[in-house]
Amino acid sequence: MKRYKAYCFDLDGTVYRGNEGIETAVRFIHRLQEEGVEYYFITNNSSKTPTQLQSALAKINIEAPTSRIYSSAITTAKYISQHYKNAIVHVIGSDGLKEALVEENIALTDDLNADVVVMGIDQTVDYMKLAKATVAVQNGATLIGTNKDIKFPSEFGFLPGNGSFVELVANVGNTDPIYVGKPSPVMLEVIQEEYGYDKEDMVLIGDNYDTDILCGIQFGCDTIHVNTGVTSTEQVLKKEIQPTYCLEDLSEI
Ligand SMILES: [Mg+2]
């Protein structure tokens, strides 16, 4: 297999399952670290901060600096600072998302004349917040969502995900939102921009065809599907566009 300069890993189902590390992935990452090859972790999870994700990795024996961990919240903040210089941002979302924006020195406002409206999951969202976001978008703000998930499973059944609220604001504001989470290619674009890689230098490794693999395909880099999580190899083989490599697990590299 070709050797890449930057290995971008999904987390859940690729590096760990819940609290348990996937041994073959952990060994592969140790090997990259020993050889001084660059690695990044990219996850649609925006509820955990990079520090929390760092400690989840530490529990499975992977020591990684937070600078290598790209949650959809962190990546949203970096994307705005790369593409909307000096933008004033109106935000609906968790404290984690707001902190990520402030960390990138992005100015936040409650004002309805913002340059960008950012939406992440907010469990205290109400009519007024959504109404304000729709007005800000009609006033010309770009609408950016951390992730597109319409729903997520819970013990009660499915509950509304961030994408449900973003679509609502987009419909009223008559705009097409930009999504940062996979399968959008934005997370890989942000890493490429920050570190100056060529697409040929990068590879995306993930278990979920519809998020991970499509993210890599849309970005235009090589992809490795591992049969350790959501999408089985059997299901992947039926897809029209195939990943560059289909592996049982990362011991095959
Ligand atoms: Mg996954």
UniProtKB/TrEMBL annotation:
Name of one Pfam family that matches: Hydrolase_like
Residues engaged in binding Mg(2+): D10, D12, D207
Cofactor: Mg(2+)
CC terms in the record's Gene Ontology section: cytoplasm
Keyword presence, Hydrolase: yes
InterPro entries assigned to the protein according to its UniProt record, in alphabetical order: HAD-like_sf, HAD-SF_hydro_IIA, HAD-SF_hydro_IIA_hyp1, HAD_sf
Residues that bind substrate: K182
Active site, renumbered: D10, D12
Cofactor note: Divalent metal ions. Mg(2+) is the most effective.
Keywords: Hydrolase, Magnesium, Metal-binding
UniProt keyword annotation of Magnesium present: yes
Signal sequence, start to end: none
Any GO molecular function: metal ion binding
Entry similarity comment: Belongs to the HAD-like hydrolase superfamily. NagD family.
NCBIfam families in the record: HAD-SF-IIA, HAD-SF-IIA-hyp2
Protein name: HAD family hydrolase
UniProt source species: Ureibacillus massiliensis 4400831 = CIP 108448 = CCUG 49529
